[in-house]
């Protein structure tokens, strides 16, 4: 059986080769631009469209972006939504779907891929990040100066991004901390972090007051690098 | 009687224009002035030449043919037409014909000539209507000016050069005026102009026959710049030229954040001067890349990250050693994904630089760098997805070692995708790649538990972690 199996393997193997995609970044001027290449040797492409994006999240399944008053996908699906920033959690278990929390109104909705469905939501604090989990979602809130996920405190942080694999990114006092789901941690020295943005499944954009960084989350390859043209 | 002379001149001028289709002008620069019956060249130093531009303007409504253009020396022989169009010359209505009359003589006396411009016939070119003027000049004794080192000149264009000296310093040159004539000569005026030039000589000097006098001119450039002035010695005017320059910046001290620099990295460069700058200076630093791979001409991902280009500004303040790059204490650059040499060069422009303006770092050929790797399965197909870069552009040969769910080896399968990669690299910037290697399988793919891939390039072999199939 093994001989049969692998004789077929060796004869018929083929390879497709293409340019690796890092993800989509948000530029200082609010343009959403694709980033290709590899870490530290990235190339930025042309903006999606000539307008400002204020919230964005991307994965291998696609992107969901928010302008001041609309939620849209690169494929052209558009929905009118409350103004201001949004926290977007793509749902890996349901391609094209996402949870969207509108910061100014405190409303939560589920994006089905074509429309928004409002959800009842009473977070009990300022929602800082959101992620889809099997059968629902979980979120991080700031309460009493600490960041909480449910009943678990993550301590003090200026910014947080909940990762799909159960981990989290936390920014505080000149460093970004990558907390894996197994509890292991990695620290990266970077100051002035103002927020995180999910560029893709593997990369997170780290927005700082001196420029735009990207963090490679791939286990064993974790590193931060500056994104081209967006740093001092 | 006193009132009649201007009247006569006015009448003469009017007559020259009456019924005349051609009117004469002299030009001082580009500004024309109507030419009277007499034009004086003034005093001209013996041996010097003086050239005046004249214009014959057709004020009529029809073309006119100028057949006569001549200068007849009536006293001495000093005037001549030095440049003009040949006659007959047709001048369209409203258009001019310019010509130049020069004067030069050595005998100390007065000179006169008659300038004629006519529209006569072919057989009598200067007959018919003629416009004319008397040209006058006086040749005066001219002293001989000489200049001692370190200055040079005067050259044929009457330039006296003080050369280049550091700003804030001064250079004094001694000049001599020789009176070669057998009688005393008063040179007046004797003047120096120009902000950076000064002399202690008087405004005039009398020189005994066959004697000379000396005086000095001091050149004091306040800044790094070119300076000019004039020296007037009697009827002659000389140009004084000199340049002040800043002391060159001291040698550069190049600081990289690491001594080990490889492809696929970002590094920080900072620059210092080995001694404080003598002046505030600005310029640029450029980054050049020379691939060591013969088939590659460049890698656009080698660049300064902040500017996304290969050039950045630099600046240093007077008295400081720290150089800012792109207005920051340092600058980050990407090394790209191609083996080669990165060369940084500072262009300090007019400020100059001591020592070499360049330094280079090399990114060596290295085994394939992996960015990610994963294994997935579809119905009857196993996929291995690997991304990374190969700074040698020689990737292709690889080996896939499959194991079953218990971890026991099933088989090691070699593959060569060199042709696929070479085709891919031809349209690429840099060597980054994402490869999806697919293996069709007959049988139950779930038996295959994992795979480890060995990838070869000209610099070595790299092995992926053990990739698990879901």
User: Assembly type of the shown chains?
Assistant: heterodimer
- Structurally, the number of domains of chain A stands at 1
Q: Portion of residues in helices of chain A?
A: under 10%
Helix content of chain B: under 10%
Q: According to CATH, what is the class of chain A?
A: Mainly Beta
Which homologous superfamily in CATH is the superfamily of chain A? TolB, C-terminal domain
The CATH architecture designation of chain A is 6 Propeller
Cα gyration radius of chain A (Å)? 19 Å
CATH topology of the largest domain in chain B: Immunoglobulin-like
Mean pLDDT of chain A: 89
Question: What's the helix and strand layout?
Answer:
The complex is a heterodimer of chains A (232) and B (470).
Chain A: H1 2-12, E1 14-18, E2 21-26, E3 32-38, E4 41-44, E5 55-59, E6 62-66, E7 70-72, E8 78-80, E9 86-90, E10 98-102, E11 107-111, E12 116-119, E13 126-133, E14 136-143, E15 146-149, E16 152-155, E17 159-162, E18 168-172, E19 175-179, E20 185-189, E21 193-198, E22 203-208, E23 211-216, E24 223-231
Antiparallel strand pairs in A: 2-3, 3-4, 5-6, 6-7, 7-8, 9-10, 10-11, 11-12, 13-14, 14-15, 15-16, 17-18, 18-19, 19-20, 21-22, 22-23, 23-24
Chain B: H1 4-17, E1 22-28, E2 31-34, E3 38-45, E4 49-58, E5 64-66, E6 68-75, E7 79-84, E8 89-91, E9 96-104, E10 110-118, E11 130-140, E12 144-147, E13 159-166, E14 171-178, E15 185-187, E16 190-193, E17 197-199, E18 205-207, E19 212-219, E20 225-233, E21 236-245, E22 252-256, E23 266-273, E24 281-291, E25 302-304, E26 311-316, E27 322-325, E28 331-335, E29 340-347, E30 358-363, E31 369-378, E32 381-389, E33 397-404, E34 409-416, H2 418-426, E35 432-440, E36 448-457, E37 460-463, E38 467-468
Parallel strand pairs in B: 3-11, 13-21
Antiparallel strand pairs in B: 1-2, 1-4, 4-9, 5-8, 6-10, 7-9, 10-11, 12-14, 14-19, 15-18, 16-20, 17-19, 20-21, 22-23, 23-27, 23-28, 24-26, 24-29, 25-28, 26-27, 29-30, 31-32, 32-35, 33-34, 33-36, 36-37, 36-38
């Amino acid at each position: 059986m093994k001989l049969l199996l692998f004789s077929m393997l060796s004869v018929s193997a083929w390879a497709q080769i293409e340019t690796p995609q890092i993800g989509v970044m948000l530029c200082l001027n609010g343009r959403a631009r694709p980033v290709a290449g590899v870490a530290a040797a990235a190339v930025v492409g042309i903006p999606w469209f000539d307008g400002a994006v204020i919230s964005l999240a991307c994965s291998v399944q696609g992107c969901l972006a928010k302008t001041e008053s609309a939620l849209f996908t690169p494929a052209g699906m558009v929905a009118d939504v409350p103004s201001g920033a949004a926290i977007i959690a793509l749902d890996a278990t349901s391609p094209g779907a996402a949870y969207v929390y509108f910061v100014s109104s405190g409303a939560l909705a589920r994006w089905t891929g074509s429309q928004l469905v409002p959800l009842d939501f009473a977070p009990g604090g300022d929602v800082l990040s959101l992620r889809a989990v099997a059968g629902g979602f979980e979120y991080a809130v700031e309460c009493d100066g600490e960041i909480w996920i449910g009943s678990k405190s993550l301590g003090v942080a200026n910014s947080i991004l909940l990762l799909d694999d159960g981990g989290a990114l936390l920014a505080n006092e000149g460093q970004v901390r990558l907390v894996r789901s197994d509890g292991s941690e990695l620290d990266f020295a970077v100051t002035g972090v103002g927020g995180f943005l999910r560029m893709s499944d593997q990369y997170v954009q780290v927005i700082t007051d001196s420029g735009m960084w990207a963090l490679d989350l791939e286990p064993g390859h974790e590193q931060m690098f500056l994104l081209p043209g967006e740093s001092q | 009687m006193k009132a009649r002379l201007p009247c006569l001149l006015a009448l003469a001028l009017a007559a020259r224009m009456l019924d005349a289709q051609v009117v004469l002008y002299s030009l001082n620069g580009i500004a024309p002035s109507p030419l009277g019956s007499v034009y004086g060249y003034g005093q001209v130093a013996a041996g010097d030449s003086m050239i005046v531009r004249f214009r014959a303007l057709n004020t009529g409504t029809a073309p006119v043919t100028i057949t006569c253009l001549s200068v007849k020396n009536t006293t001495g022989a000093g005037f001549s037409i030095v440049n003009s169009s040949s006659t007959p010359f047709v001048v369209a209505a409203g258009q001019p014909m310019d010509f130049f009359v020069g004067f030069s003589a050595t005998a100390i006396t007065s000179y006169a000539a008659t300038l004629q411009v006519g529209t006569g016939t072919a057989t009598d070119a200067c007959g018919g209507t003629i416009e004319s003027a008397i040209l006058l000049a006086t040749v005066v004794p001219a002293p001989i000016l000489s200049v001692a080192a370190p200055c040079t000149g005067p050259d044929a264009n009457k330039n006296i050069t003080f050369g280049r000296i550091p700003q804030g310093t001064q250079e004094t040159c001694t000049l001599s005026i020789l009176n070669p004539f057998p009688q005393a000569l008063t040179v007046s005026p004797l003047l120096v102009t120009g902000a950076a030039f000064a002399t202690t000589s008087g405004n005039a000097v009398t020189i005994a026959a066959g004697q000379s006098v000396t005086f000095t001119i001091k050149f004091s450039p306040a800044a790094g710049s070119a300076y000019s002035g004039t020296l007037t010695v009697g009827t002659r005017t000389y140009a004084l030229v000199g340049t002040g320059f800043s002391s060159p910046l001291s040698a550069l001290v190049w600081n990289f954040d690491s001594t080990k620099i490889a492809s696929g990295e970002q590094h920080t460069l900072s620059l210092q001067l080995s001694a404080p700058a003598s002046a505030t200076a600005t310029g640029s630093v450029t980054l050049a890349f020379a691939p060591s791979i013969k088939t590659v001409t460049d890698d656009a991902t080698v660049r300064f990250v902040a500017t996304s280009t290969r050039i950045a500004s630099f600046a240093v303040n007077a008295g400081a050693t720290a150089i800012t790059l792109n207005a920051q204490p340092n600058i980050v650059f990407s090394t790209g994904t191609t083996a080669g040499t990165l060369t940084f060069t500072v262009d300090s422009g007019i400020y100059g630089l001591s020592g070499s303006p360049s330094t280079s770092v090399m990114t060596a050929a290295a085994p394939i760098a992996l960015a990610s790797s994963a294994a997935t399965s579809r119905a009857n197909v196993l996929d291995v997805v690997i991304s990374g870069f190969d700074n040698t552009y020689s990737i292709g040969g690889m080996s896939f070692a499959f194991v079953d769910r218990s971890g026991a080896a099933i088989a090691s399968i070699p593959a060569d995708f060199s042709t696929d990669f070479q085709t891919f690299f031809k349209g690429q910037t840099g060597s980054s790649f994402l490869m999806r290697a697919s293996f069709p399988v007959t049988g139950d793919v779930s038996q295959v538990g994992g795979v480890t891939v060995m990838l070869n390039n000209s610099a070595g072999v790299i092995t992926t972690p053990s990739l698990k199939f879901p």
